[in-house]
């Protein structure tokens, strides 16, 4: 007892409190996101009409459905977490259980933070899209991030749950529902983007032959510039992922006390797509 670090007891209390605080914080972030979406819906109805209003309503409705699915998932995850602690702690206190299983606890905290952060980012992206100051692609990326973070939360909870647990079955069902709602956000965003772009398509009927040729050449230049930028961004994404894997490998090695090889990055994303045939 004398040789034990004095900070260990504080660590136990911190871990126990942090799990509850993060779960509560995530729930609060989701509730706030739902309120903000309702406010955006009201604002969109007052400030837009026609196709833009239709697109905004469809996107915001899909975001609301996603937030409701996430809220149910977090609630179910909290119930499962309590079940795991009660069945596994024995005579130990809740704080001692969390400290004894510190790596699992930290994974749970990290997953909960990721879900709350993803919900907040989704709302901010939706707000910018409705105000026409953001990009539709941001909303799509946020939806993918939410699906990934909820999968992380389910995986963290599943590690110590009994296979026959009803709460685990409910959590997996909630996760599938979140994935479905996230896919709906992506679909409504893409269809809305296509509608807006079709509406804003230029009319070339009044242009002279010389003007058309000039526009065509300028567009070809833009295409080449975008292709070069795309190639550069793919390389950058690959390097970011390699660094991410390297840091994740170092973290695992520090936790386990031994080195682990970092997983090789996926090469498919770095492959340059075939260029469109130019006239």
Automatic annotation (TrEMBL):
Q: Which InterPro entries match?
A: I/LWEQ_dom_sf (IPR035964), ILWEQ_dom (IPR002558), Sla2_fam (IPR030224)
Alphabetically ordered keywords of this record: Coiled coil, Cytoplasm
Q: Does the keyword Coiled coil apply?
A: yes
Q: Which organism is it from?
A: Rhynochetos jubatus
Main localization of the protein described in the UniProt heading: cytoplasm
- Give the transmembrane ranges: none
The compartments listed are:
Cytoplasm
GO CC field: clathrin-coated vesicle; cortical actin cytoskeleton
What Pfam family is a match for this entry?
Answer: I_LWEQ
Q: Does the keyword Nucleus apply?
A: no
The protein here is known as HIP1R protein
Give all residue intervals belonging to the I/LWEQ domain: 7-248
Q: Which GO terms describe its biological process?
A: actin filament organization; clathrin coat assembly; endocytosis
GO molecular function terms here?
A: actin filament binding; clathrin adaptor activity; clathrin light chain binding; phosphatidylinositol-3,4-bisphosphate binding; phosphatidylinositol-3,5-bisphosphate binding
Query: Signal sequence span per UniProt?
Result: none
Domain of life (superkingdom): Eukaryota
The parts of the chain that form a coiled coil are: 207-243
Q: Where is this region: Disordered?
A: 254-279
């Amino acid at each position: 007892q004398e040789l034990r670090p004095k900070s260990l007891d504080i660590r136990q209390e911190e871990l126990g409190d942090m799990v509850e605080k993060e779960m509560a914080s995530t729930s609060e972030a989701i509730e706030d996101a739902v309120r903000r979406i309702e406010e955006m819906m009201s604002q969109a109805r007052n400030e837009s009409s026609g196709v833009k209003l239709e697109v905004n309503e469809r996107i915001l409705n899909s975001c609301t459905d996603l937030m409701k699915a996430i809220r149910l998932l977090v609630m179910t995850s909290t119930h499962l977490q309590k079940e795991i602690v009660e069945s596994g702690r024995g005579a130990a206190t809740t704080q001692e259980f969390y400290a004894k299983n510190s790596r699992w606890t930290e994974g749970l905290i990290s997953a909960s933070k990721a879900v709350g952060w993803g919900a907040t980012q989704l709302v901010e992206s939706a707000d910018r899209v409705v105000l026409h100051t953001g990009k539709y692609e941001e909303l799509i990326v946020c939806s993918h991030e939410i699906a990934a973070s909820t999968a992380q939360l389910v995986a963290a909870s599943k590690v110590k749950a009994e296979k026959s647990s009803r709460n685990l079955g409910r959590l997996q069902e909630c996760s599938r529902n979140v994935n479905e709602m996230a896919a709906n956000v992506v679909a409504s965003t893409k269809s809305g983007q296509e509608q807006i772009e079709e509406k804003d398509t230029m009319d070339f009927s009044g242009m002279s032959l010389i003007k058309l040729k000039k526009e065509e050449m300028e567009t070809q230049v833009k295409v080449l510039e975008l292709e070069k930028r795309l190639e550069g961004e793919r390389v950058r994404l690959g390097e970011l992922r390699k660094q991410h894997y390297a840091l994740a490998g170092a973290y695992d090695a520090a936790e386990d006390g031994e080195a682990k090889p970092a997983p090789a990055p996926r090469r498919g994303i770095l492959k340059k797509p075939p260029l469109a045939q130019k006239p």
